[in-house]
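Assess this today:

___
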Amino acid sequence: MTSLFDQYEQESQRSRDPVALPSSSDMGVGMGYIDMTVADDVPIFAKQTVNFKPTHRVTHLAVNNEVLVITMANNQLLRINFQKSAHSGQKAGQGPQVEEITIPSSSQYLKLIGLYLDPTGSHVLLSMARRGDQSTTSELLYLSANSNKIKQTSKLRAHEVTAVAWNEACEPGEPTTRPILLGTSRGVILETTLSADSDRKFQGSVEQYCSQLFDVGKGSHCPITGISFNRITGTDKYLILVVTWSRLYQFVGSVANADEPMRALALQHIFNVYLSIPETYIEMTSNKNACLQMYYSKPKTMPKHFGWLVDDGLFIGQIDAEQKTSGEEEQQRVGVMSGQDVVRYPTGGGVPQAFVLTEFHALLLYADHVTGISTLNQATVFDDFYNESHGKLVNIAKDSVKGTIWVIAERAIFKYRVTREERNVWQIHMEKGDYNKAKSYCADNPLHMDIILVKQADELFQTEQYEQSALLYAETQSSFEEVALKFLQVWQIEALKIFLKKKLEMLKPSEKTQITMIVMWVVELHLNQLGNLRNEGKEHSTQFRAVQDDLDAFLQLPVVSDSVKNNRGAVYDLMSSHDDKHNLIRLTIANKDFERVIRLHINKGEFIKALEILKSQNLRDLYYTFTPALLPAIPRPTVSALIEQGRHLNPSKLLPALITTQTDQTTINEIIRYLEFCVGQINCQEQAVHNYLLSLYVKHKPDRLMRYLAMQGQEASMVNYDVRYALRLCREQGGCTEACVQLSALLGLWEAAVDLALSVSVDLAQQTVAMAVARTDTTKKLWLKIAQHVVREKNDIQQAMQFLQRCELLKIEDILPFFSDFVTIDHFKDAICSSLQEYNQHIQDLKDEIEDTTKSAEVLRKEIQEFRKRYDIIEPSDTCSSCGIQLLMRPFYFFPCSHRFHGDCLVTELDSLLPDTQRHRLLELQKQLQSVGAGGGGGGGVASDAVSTGSANRSLSLRDQLKSEIDAIVASECLYCGDLIIQNIDSPFIEDKDYERIRREWE
């Protein structure tokens, strides 16, 4: 059987893309699964040889914005523009533009000590100098982009320029350099602006102005080997860095109208502050090769860090432009450097001649090779040795705009292209323990990110920071089983819960199996903690409350809530196994699983609470479920709750519960109370309910039985109970004779009812006979039973005589056979005389009735004779009462009420009024009449026989017989005055079959 961990891993693997994934052993770290395509192992620094052979030995190099400036030993300056074509007549892209410019002959006796090119590649400065025993002769030459003539400066001749800080705000093509800073061999900082428009008439010098800003050497020989100034982003402040052989100075200050093009002496305000306070500097041992290099992530932005060559190594300083300080003086002292480090030179290499900085590396230039070192961990990245045929290496420079690195030897030029130098930065930071920086450099590489997280989590685990490590482990692809076991081995349950919860957050909704497993595990851990605290008697402690709150918060999470609802049975079983009824009840209430809540209360014997929950919810089906359990325990409250539901409950569905719970008299009384409510208040007519109530009456409340039967009535078809079932119950129970009498009467068993009634009392028997159907023979027979009982059983002649007086159907002669032979006539003399008088009176009434009938018959006979002689005159102008056409046009019928109709009109009118049988008979007679007329069997017209007097001709022909029968149907009564029209008064004017047709006609 697979373990919980194995199941989780299997489901997790199924839910992923079914591509073959590398194992953790293949990746070198137990990371789970990450499918990552590794890029080609391209060198970070790829060297390329430039197809250019200088004619003479190269002495200096400067490069920026794809403009390369080199000087040769023959006092020639080459300006190579890789953005322009070699000749104006050639197409672009066929080769760089190369300009060869001769350095002025007046400067040939001087030595070029410095070549400087601004970031735009437009302005070139050449610093010339020659040192003698007592003095130094110097000169500064200027070459603009739009000119091939090198010009001399006039105001700077007295200064040996050893460093230049260009203005980053300068744009390509501008004729001036804007304000720049110059550093001299005596430690003087100068500000000047050089202009390419010096050819103008009356223009006396290349520099527009020249002013001294500060002196770091204080009059001594203190060459400035590097200088830069940059505006701090988002402020009006500038940072100025100055490097000498032994010190790194830092100046910070504000400049008025910093957003406008800088004017002359604009930077003077920065240095004025340091006239009254000491300068801020870092002092280290250096030599003449000391120089300053800045690294810019983007052109025209604040540099991220800088490098300074010192004897001990490469001094790297980080620049934090967002550093906050308190007070201007404090900021001037601290500046914006956030960190510093000295990167040691490779063993045996010594101090390099020059260097360039990239974001994470420094390339050191030696006489015969270039060494790349990491500024993060001081590791040597590569050593690139050059062939002696190229001569000694002269200089290395970086294009601050394009990012390419150029190396020049005495007889060759090389270029380094930087490719993804950040590829291993994450690993360096990880090894140094700076995990946040490591993560920032591999956000798009899940494999590297996973390695960092695992290492960080392992470190936190080793230092016993278990909860923090759990959060990180959850974000990795480490084996779920391995991590869980690590926390279990040290029994860090809180950390394990954190790990599981974090894993749960990262699962997709489709990964239902993993979600269910984690939810169940976390709930198990909480329940186990609560159970341990409960066993220790800490149920009311703060620790117990904290664990309970944590469990409550976990169960309220949407993904957890859905999982619990889908697997509520397993969760309930889990809580039950821990005997945690409190959480079990709360969870069932939260899930609205009120059935289980009620069941739990019932199991605990809390019947009142169970009933209250049942009443508080509008779930009436639960009443049918829990009434069998609640009714025996709390009969009266349960029945009251059932009564409160009223018509919302179906009493017939409650019958099984009621029948199974009739254990004691109290419960039975409450059941009767509920059934009486159903019958009396909500008018329940379910036969089963009435039968059950009647059975309870018979067995437990016989005094209420007769009242119930009376309430139901004396009509068998109207009662709601089963009469035969009730009669059988009453007979089996005994003691319910009166009920049996009434029930037998309802069934029509009158003789049996009277027999039972007589066993109780004569009055009851008489009442029973009074309910009998009004049939003389049956009623008389029942009365005879009663009379026989009175005479024979009681032998009470006086009562028998009184009985005769009350019963009109019985005569003395009917009951005489019941008396014994020893009874004398004296006892019946009055009854016999009374009976004879009644007979005489009845005979006399019959004679009077016969006489009245004879007289009525005579009167009718006379009226008939008179009616035969009656006649009426038909005028030619008389019309049919139906169609309005002259009556004499067609055969007609004339009625005593003076209404007259054509024969066919009368038949048409009667068609819708006659009953179906008469209408069919009339149609049949008409067809027979037509067939007789067609065969010549009859003679004469119908008109001569239109007026019927009712006399019959014994020798009628077949035609006359048919006509006579038709007349009997059609002319039996007037259409307008007879009963037929009255009987059809409720007939609609339009028949249903004709309604649609007539409606369409009216439309």
Notes: The mean pLDDT is 79.
